[in-house]
Amino acid sequence: MPYLYLKLSHPAVPAALQAIAGRLTDLTESILRKQRHLTALTIETLPAGRWFIGGEGLAAESPPSFELDIKITAGTNSADDKAAYIAAVFGAMADFYGRLDPASYVVIHDVDGQAWGYGGRAQAARRPATARL
């Protein structure tokens, strides 16, 4: 169960948003080994004039930028998993947009299993008793 929140600096047509959602879900499943049917994603495109890098607003002709925030349960992925995911997400977004502003970010939040959950149960409650020792 991860939750992904993607912000885009430039607009995308609905078909592209669907493709981006599918690709990010694929990467989350394959690299971070998260269950596809529990992977939720929200995509927000910010209007022109609301994205700034280095204090300067991005113009329509400037390279696009993005930020992906993803929440995962703490302790479920290694540093190598996370590094591979960050690189793969940047590559996937470059596939969609072409050249990207290098100030595009992937932020992985390791959330304590007692602090979040789904279906009314905390993640910590889903772990076998032996895992909590």
Low-pLDDT residue intervals, each spanning 5 or more residues: none
Q: How much helix is in the residues?
A: 25-40%
What is the H-and-E element order? EHEEEEHEEEH
What is the gyration radius calculated from CA atoms?
Answer: 16 Å
Protein described:
The mean pLDDT is 92. The strands form three sheets. Strands 2-1-5-6 form a four-stranded mixed beta sheet, covered by helices on one side. A two-stranded antiparallel sheet has the order 3-4. The chain is built from three helices and eight strands. Helix 1 packs antiparallel against helix 2 (79-97). The protein is α/β, with parallel strands linked by helices. Helix 1 (14-32) links the parallel strand 1 and strand 2 (40-45).
Short description:
With 133 residues, this protein is an alpha/beta fold. The chain contains three helices and eight strands; from the N terminus they run βαββββαβββα. The model has no long low-confidence stretch (mean pLDDT 92).
Features:
133 residues; two-stranded antiparallel ribbon; single chain; four-stranded mixed β-sheet
